[in-house]
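Q: I'm a student working through a structural biology exercise. My instructor gave each of us a protein and asked us to get a predicted structure, then write a short paragraph describing it. Mine is DUF2029 domain-containing protein. I'm not confident about reading structure output yet, so if you can add a plain explanation after the tokens, that would really help. Here is the sequence I was given:
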Amino acid sequence: MNAVKTTAPTTDRTHRLLALAAAWLATRALMLWLLLHNSAPLLGHGYVAREVWRLYHHWYGVLVHGAFPAHDHLWQYPPGAGPVLLSPALLPGMTYFQAFVTLTLATDAVIALALSRAGTRPGRTLLGAALWVGGLPLMLHVPLARYDVQVTAFAVLSLLASSRSTRAYGALAALGGLVKVWPALVLLGAPKGRATRSAWTWAAVAGAVSLTLLSALFTSPFAFLRQQNGRGVQIESLGGTALALATHAGWPGQVRYQYGSMEFTGPHVRTVAHLMLGLTALAFALLLLWRLRARHWTPATPYDAALAAVLLFTVTSRVISPQYMIWLLGVAAVCLTSRHTVQRPVAVLILLATAISAVAYPALYSEVKGCTWTGCGLMLARNGLLAAAAVLSFVRLWRSTAASPPAQLRTPRVASDARGVVPPVHA
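A: Happy to help. First, here is the predicted structure for DUF2029 domain-containing protein. I'll explain a few features afterward.
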């Protein structure tokens, strides 16, 4: 009887893993078909793919000579982005576009595999892997033509490593931060005490060593800071939604392509940009206050805190590009691997926002650029869902850590040993 009871869950788990694998293959084949169908045959010369075969490829030509594109106002990425954009050279038998898409699919598979493996451990669930496998295709073929899947991989692997090795947790977060800044936010939820000291120390060491190496190999590693300072308000941001609605009330602003995105120009745009920066500072202050006041940590708290942080910084950003949804899906998927998470309703809101985002871009992007009522409605719905998700995520995080639970429900505090390894906690 015991053998039967043991075999049944194992068989069921195997079936679920096979179903996830089949779903990944089917959906990624569809995404790849869409990418090529909306492009010149086998070249990717389409509207969505243009960022790879034109922009990324152009930067590749500069990077191979040991320099960052310092004088290109479109270059707004930290120095860690350089090796990612150079990575297609690892597949010399392909064009740059083909190699980039192949490596993106491989990274996507690594994320799905890591989430699936985490979901099979005690106290875990495969919902996270299901969210990633089924949620990413909602963005159609956009994820295959952006390097945000690679960025998200750093955050996902860092969070999944947090319960086993604070060294890997900190190092991966730092490396991700050097590629696109936001993955460093996953360290905000590190358990207080030795685990935090270990994770943050290893993040500082990994970041410093990597930055020193990149500075030695490439010239002008900090040129991106100059370009970031000049950015305005993108039409898909929360501030951009307000300005788009203002055009229907007589505001004379216009939409113009600058700094790599469609941004508003006109009176009061700079004021809105400063307001968004102020909201970002407020979000950071709230997260610091949460960390100071938090008393109760569960195995899912580092995941939940990461999702709340990324949501708050995304919503208050001057730019909310479609590919930002990849970040949110990845971190939400990590949350759902744990049965202790309080972010399940937030994950649903993110899925809804992702679906609407795909309608806005690329399907009806002309409506968004034209600030039509349809475009305004799409952005109001998408950004409204993201704002609601950010508030709900932070509130649920705060409540879940505000006070210690009764003694019989108390979870042992997570702490690392001398090697930086955090023992798994089961409740």
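A: Here are two points you could use in your paragraph. The beta strands are 233-234, 254-258, 261-265. Residues 35-220+230-403 form one domain. It's a good idea to check both against the output above yourself.
Q: Great, thank you!
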